[in-house]
Write a structure and sequence with these properties.
This protein is an alpha/beta fold. The chain has two domains: 2-76 and 155-249, P-loop containing nucleotide triphosphate hydrolases (Rossmann fold, 3-Layer(aba) Sandwich); 88-153, no CATH class. The protein contains ten helices and twelve strands. The protein has helices at residues 40-47, 70-73, 92-98, 101-104, 110-122, 138-151, 168-185, 196-202, 220-223, 226-233, and strands spanning 2-11, 14-24, 28-34, 55-60, 63-64, 77-80, 156-160, 188-192, 205-210, 213-218, 238-242, 245-249. The strands form three sheets. A six-stranded mixed β-sheet has the order 6-7-8-3-9-10, sandwiched between helices. A four-stranded antiparallel β-sheet has the order 2-1-4-5, covered by helices on one side. α3 packs parallel to α6 and α5 (110-122) runs antiparallel to α6. It is globular and about 50 Å long. The structure holds adenosine-5'-triphosphate. Belongs to the ABC transporter superfamily.
Length: 252
């Protein structure tokens, strides 16, 4: 479980997170949703200790993340940021291998190589494995980054808008792969999604944020209702239910 207790965060005079307390249960997929600037990425980056905690406490599986050495933390939590800086003069297989570095200090074992190949296969990257990142399309590069994160084989997987740039097929495949990985290995996936319908179809629970606070934490059926959506996003949407799953209509 990830336990977030009374976390506040500000930059200068601007409050970005206000007294956030949230338990994310072990296993399954938790989707973080909310308008631009709601604080989703900031919360994710604090869980992965990419920035110092200013107030409150965060633990992952009982481990206090802000007091755990980076190398140890990297074996427990993997994060894919929204716009990671990676050099383009890197081949896909090299990038995915980076996911194994926290485990072997750069020296890859046979098991590491096998995990890299599995991640390449899982994201349909085998044919692209020897290509430089700069020669890939945006979606192919995004898949390589997700594969690197999965190859880290951590108990907690944090993904910030990983569906960016993915076409419908690969967006669905990624969500299905995350579900499969979570189910087969008991991994806990926390994923920032802008498409609430992806959240409804694939997430086990949804956490909605607004203005630096958590405003809802429940199942898709409870959160994806017109009044709740209005409260979270500030405009009216219709919701239909298809095969038991809410589908949000937000185009008109
Ligand atoms: N480095 C920074 N310097 C100043 N303000 C920042 C910085 N990073 C984030 N913020 C501000 O913090 C607030 C929350 O940003 P954050 O990226 O966490 O939101 P978000 O919910 O992930 O948004 P989005 O959906 O647009 O990615 C925003 O108002 C943003 O402008």
């Amino acid at each position: 479980m990830i336990r977030i207790e009374n976390v506040s965060f500000s930059r200068g005079s601007k409050t970005i997170l206000q007294d956030v307390s949230l338990d994310i249960p072990k296993g399954g997929i938790t989707a973080l949703v909310g308008a631009n600037g709601a604080g989703k990425s900031t919360l994710l980056s604090l869980i992965a200790r990419l920035q110092p905690l200013q107030a409150g406490q965060i633990t992952a599986g009982g481990l206090p993340v802000h007091a755990t050495p980076s190398r140890e933390l990297a074996k427990v939590i993997a994060i894919l940021r929204q716009e990671p800086l990676v050099t383009s003069r890197l081949r896909v297989r090299e990038l995915v291998s980076f996911g194994r570095f926290p485990h072997g200090r750069g020296k890859l074992t046979n098991e590491d190589h096998a995990l890299v190949e599995r991640a390449l296969q899982q994201f349909d990257l085998t044919d692209l494995a020897d290509r430089f990142l700069e020669t890939l399309s945006g979606g192919q590069r995004q898949r390589a980054l997700v594969a690197m994160t999965i190859a880290q084989d951590t108990e907690y997987l944090l993904l910030d808008e990983p569906l960016n740039n993915l076409d419908m097929y690969f967006a669905r495949e990624l969500m299905r792969s995350l579900k499969a990985v979570s189910k087969a290995h008991g991994k806990t996936v926390v994923i920032v999604l802008h498409d609430v319908n992806q959240a409804a179809s694939h997430a086990d629970r949804i956490v909605a944020m607004k203005d630096g606070r958590v405003v809802a934490n429940a199942s898709a059926r409870e959160i994806l209702t017109p009044p709740m959506l209005f409260d979270i996003f500030g405009f009216e949407m219709e919701v239909e239910t298809i095969n038991g799953t809410p589908v949000v209509l937000h185009f008109q």
